[in-house]
Amino acid sequence: MLQLVSDGITYLTAQSGESLFRLFWFVVIFELPRYTLGFLSVAAISLHWRRAPTEGRDLRRVTALIAGHNEEDSIERCVRSLHEQTRPPDEIIVVSDGSTDRMAERMRSLQNRGLIKEAHCTQVRAGKSAAVNLALSRATGDIVVVVDCDCTFDRRAIQKIIEPLADPRTAGVSGNVVVRNSSTNLLTEFQAIEYLISISQGRQAADLTGQVSCISGAFGAFRRSALLGVGGLDAGGGEDLDVTLSLRKAGWKVVFAADAVCYTDVPTTLGALVRQRFRWERDSVRLRYRKHRDMIDPFSSRFSWQEIAHEFDFLVFNIGSAVVFPIYIAWLFVTYGDLALVILFGAQAGMMLFDGVTFALSALVTPRVNALRLMPYVVGYSLFNGFVMRFVRLGAYLDEWILESSYQDTYVPQKVHRVRR
Amino acid sequence: MTTATASLFETRAESVPGRRILVAEDSPTTHEILKLLLQQRGHDVDIATDGEQALEALRHNRYDVALLDFHLPKMSGLDVAATIRHEAQDRPLPRLVAITADVEGLLADEQGCDNFDQVLPKPLDIYHVAQVVEGQDEIAEAERLAPAPRPAAPRIAEERRSPFEDLGYSLLTWPGDIDTGRLSARAMQASLGDPRFDGILIKTPVSVEDLAALWNAKALYMLPIIDLTGTLGRIADVDAPKLTALDRGQLDDAIRAAHDRRARLHRDLQFSTELGDQLIGKLYVSNRPLTPSYDPLVTWLVSYDVALTTPVIAREAEALCEHGLLRREFFDKFHVCPRCDSLRLHVREECVQCHSSNLEEEQYLHHFRCAYQGPEQEFRRGDQLICPKCRYELTHFGFDYDRPGSMVVCQACGHAASEPAVGFVCLDCGNHVGGDVAPIRDLYTYRLTDHGIGFAEHGRSLLGSASHALRFADLPLELVVALNAAAKRYNEAKEPFTLVNLFYRNEREVVAQHGARAFAKARDLFIENVRASLSEASLVVKGQSHDYALLAGVGPEQAKGDFDLFVVQAANTLSHDIGASFQVFGPEDFV
User: Fold this and answer.
1) What is the pLDDT of residue B245?
2) Is residue B19 within 8 Å of residue B65, measured between CB atoms?
3) A410 touching chain B per CB within 8 A
4) Which of A174, A375, B269, B314 could disulfide-link A215, Cβ–Cβ 3.0 to 4.6 Å?
5) What number is the ipTM of this complex?
6) pTM for this entry
7) What residues in A contact B397, CB-CB < 8 Å?
8) Element (H, E) at B360
């Protein structure tokens, strides 16, 4: 074994530039550009290439919409955290979506204490989209902030998330989602790193190029007229990506507010995490390549060069990397036999290095997270992300492509699956 | 006790004008008492000691009131009254008030009834005298201004005689015997606890407030109320319109039972002027719990079956519960208007925001296909349901759409909620009060506890020494006069005095074991023994449930020391331990 490793190192160090590419083409094509983009964006952000601060026109009316199903434990904390804001919402509307617990009772109590303006309870579960739509029809604010019940907020979150809407071309702002329960176990530590890299830093990078393609369902702000213009949320899972794509299609700008921090709990077991990611990735595929395929169809009237970048990004770095990776491994073993293992480790070592640097840079531009504590977990994260999550994604894509499983998702009531587009 | 005493020891400061009064009375004690009392209340008093003097005085002076003893030397009070009335013709006359121990005798005399305006039964009650002299201003005034033929009250009653009056009962009638602010001689006799009276016959509609007259006239409150009008409802002990001819037995039973229980009611309660005591007495006599029933005509929505208003009953009964005399049983819970204390509240569903009751419930539809969820109205196009978002027609319930819930929309302010709030509007003052902030009041049925029954049967002695407080209203007149004289000497010459209040802790036990006579004998003997121990200058007076000694020239400190000894000595020779105890009161206690 040791012999193999030392042989491998000798072999790798003996390679020239061109032959290195021949060995590591996967990393060069599917990983290196991603990291490079990240480095560039961080550099840009650090060089204050930020959105010009618009004057705080927060005189406009803000409505917070909360839709939840069986959230008796978290609704009060969520509402209180909204009242703690430097810019508290002018009204809060809560919809209990067919809850079977005591959520309705808690809402009544909140209403009696004047903490929320309207409380609506449906007896039958209709799904998050329908619940938000119901709340939206009651909202009177110029801006609606849609929040998840299990989220809590940084004191400046609302103030920061509505700031970009001063620009009349902007219709939606995505909040920055940070993991609240990162110290629970190894899995949540990894997810904390992942959120930091992919949301806090990743969306910031996307924002620089006007490529924000998903306003997190957990925390997003919308211009109400624009949201009503696209008919509110549509049925089915992934409604946050769905509505963002719809807004972009309608010509609106969508941006990311890194300072608008909301905290959420992530799955603590591998099973739950895998189920969650299957749902997300399946919905992404369904929405991008089925429902909104006209956006990448050059012959469609809705085709726009603006959208090509993020669509390409998703296609290459998400789907491409997941699909090609097994092929790359197979190719390695076929071509190099035992040496493939060493090459693979070499590749992984390089990616670890990149991940470490990316993480450090992400931490640099995200002040709210205790990144120092997460640092030791980066090595594990790199492996976990590179091997486990990549295969999870692959599984999800295949599942959706072949079985169209997103149509059986329990996250959406069955009656809705049956009929939605 | 100081307030009660003060009102008698001080001159009357209220707005009743001083009256000129003639007192014709041969007993020096009685006229002395009356003079003292009435002068202190600011009236001018002349005394006549026989009938001729009285007639002379009436001929030559103008009086507002003349109190004439029925039995006077030389010329009876009746003769004086008849003569002066005859002589006066149309000249204004004072009110002629007879004082007699024999009210029935006077009533039997046709002339007697006609010649006197009023009868005061003996023994005299000082408050009653004051009431008669002062309390009839309006009537006196009216009669002076327009001397009309005096209404012959008994005759009017006779014209509208009810069959109930011919059943052989001795009933007081309303009006006639009792009326607001006026009692006939018979009623007054009954108010002294005369057991010959059977009940009160209500012949014209009266309100609960009118019936306050019964509670202000001592023992009258105990008499069963027989209501001919049917307007008193459950307040009446016998609701006559509901009786049939066959129910005669029921009436007999009711009256007999009331008699029995009145006889067993202790004197303390029979003659108490405290409403709480009277309430216990009434419950004891009527032998039924104090029962509430719904009554939309009163602001408290509930009436009790006793002739008092609900707030008064609730207040008194709660106090009695605290003393353990009554026990309560839950009846109902009410919301109260915090502004006017009315319980007549209109309950309604209303807007959480603006309290309007103009609410409409809207069901909302959920269109599965596009996730639009909103009020049904938005979907309605004639008989079609069209989704306002995607323009699809909803045709298949449960497959295209369903109705997940409803919201209540305020037509006044547009606010919507999944459930309306509950609120109240006060029907009496129009005040609005939210359902969750309206104060709550519980009303109860009250029953006498064993302790309450004991109190009814054995009086104040049962309540222990704490309630042996000196009650001025209980003091015998003789003592009041002597006390007054002592107070005067104290004010002028600083001569001290002490009032000793004697009471008997074991009265109940002794009565229960050996009978009331044995107790009375022991008590008499005890008093005699005490009297023998005291000096000539001291006065020992028997009261109703307490006895009193007034020691002149001795301060309370010394008296207490002396009495500790006297009481032990006096009790030594008794065959039963009556538990004699005492309290002392010095001049300072009467300031």
Assistant:
1) 63
2) yes
3) no
4) A174
5) 0.72
6) 0.58
7) none
8) strand B359-367
